[in-house]
Design goal:
It comes from Arion vulgaris. Residues 1-93 form the MABP domain. One of its GO terms (cellular component) is cytoplasmic vesicle. This is MABP domain-containing protein. Keywords: Guanine-nucleotide releasing factor. This protein is mainly β. The chain has one domain (12-93). Helices cover 0% and strands 22% of the residues. The chain is built from no helices and 5 strands. The chain is extended. The mean pLDDT is 83.
């Protein structure tokens, strides 16, 4: 929560989306809320648990985290109106490069974007 909580050391704040839009996850116009993350150290061992996937659920619609996901018990929507929005994450052990070949796109449909 911008201005209300300290960002942990080593964490980065996601301020914009890939398209350059504000990444504020709060519906309220007065308070902005951003997702933060911290990368695993390059020297992390292969048995270190890391976040490998995230999802968003709406609590007031009765949505539950998918199997193997954990819910962060902090409502991201601090507005008076709107849904109870929660971020969920999945952890797995960090893996080194396990592909023995270089991946490439062999074909696609449609061949060109519109």
């Amino acid at each position: 929560y911008e201005g209300k909580e300290r960002v942990m050391e080593g964490c980065e704040v996601v301020h914009t989306t890939l398209q350059g839009h504000p990444a504020n996850v709060n519906n309220s116009s007065s308070n902005r809320t951003y997702v933060t993350f911290r990368r695993a150290e390059k020297s992390a061992s292969s048995d270190t648990l890391v976040v490998v996937d995230i999802c968003v659920i709406l609590g007031n619609r009765g949505e539950e985290p998918p199997l193997t996901f954990l819910k962060i018990l902090k409502n991201l929507n601090k507005g008076m109106l709107g849904s109870d929005v929660y971020l969920c994450y999945k952890k797995a052990m960090v893996k080194t490069d396990v592909l023995s070949y270089k991946a490439s796109i062999l074909g696609r449909y449609p061949a060109e974007d519109y």
